Input
Amino acid sequence: MNTVTKVISTATSTASKLSVPILYNAKVAGQIAKNVYVREGMAPPSAAQIESAKDATLKFIWDARSINTWKNISSTQYMKAGLVAAEAYAFFMVGEIIGRRSLIGYNVESADSHQEHH
Output
């Protein structure tokens, strides 16, 4: 029980030491985001903009069903679409690596070690 108390005490002490810098950095990040928001003239989309985006998306989906739409796309546009897809895949892979906390694979027990538990 004494060890648990020490661990809890250490964790509490560490958390209290880190809380001030974390709060400070969060406030700084909030102020930077606010300044960017104001300087760039950003604003939430209006109802008309949302409706316009919805209509454009539905038109894109409807047009994508037609074979003529795909025939009229240039090879440059296909290359750009491929690059965007590769970029999205790269960001996905970086997120996977960060999530796994490992460059290669997940830390999974082998089937042999699993059999030992049964």
Summary: The radius of gyration is 26 Å. The chain has a mean pLDDT of 85. The first helix runs from residue 2 to 39.
